[in-house]
Amino acid sequence: MLKQALQIVIERAPQVFRPGTKLYKSSSGPAILTATSIRSRAISSLTRTSDYSKTISTRSFSTSRTMASTKSFIEVVKGRRSYYLLNKDAPISDDAIVQLVNDTVLNLPSFFNTQTARLVVLLKAEHELFWDMVGEVLKPIVPEADFPATEQKLGMFKAGYGTILFFEDPAPVKALQEAYPIYADHMPTWSEHTSAMHQFVLWAGLEAEGFGANLQHYNPVIDLKVQNHWKVPLEWKLRAQLVFGGKAGEAGEKTFKPLEDRVFVHGK
Fold it and tell me: Which of 31, 58, 185, 264 has its CA 20 to 30 A from that of 86?
């Protein structure tokens, strides 16, 4: 379903390379970290390399065999919805979930090949712990009369199977800002674009595998508690939380604004 579709995206949206472009990568290893492995990771440091061909040659892509190979990428895009009623049912294995995340992180583009996305995957009990933490942080902040509704909403997220935390590592961005000051003001925005692509592809990809999912933004109020517990480098910036699980209900009705107000074609 998503394998062939994402391969098309990868082929049509290559990394931005120019002769002499400096590339940066984390010396601490892969950008995806599970809740158990992240505790053993050291804080990322940057190393420079002029040979970007090694980075490209090691990239690969694969998805679970449960995906229907006949489903196109645009069909996957159309099928992506916000599912808020979730349960603990998982249509694919934990290994398949991690493989989908790995493939996404390895293959999605980033500006100047900075590869700034850092993902933390929380499954089962770790996922539930995360949403308990969110409640602990919000309770002193939310008015007492409003907290029961907030608690109910958080319970809906906790009822799911897992949560993916999307961080951005600002270190490569800062290095490039110094190297290319003319573009410096735009680079933080480009970093956000990188994160958004990862969020969308995993959202659509998990739903293509049979999960329901929704995207949340409880940052920055939860950042410090989360980073301290899962030993995430404090300089990383939390950008979103993708909640997923079995579908316990249907997605709401989706409405569309007129395309003529949103798409403009010239030269046809």
Answer: 31
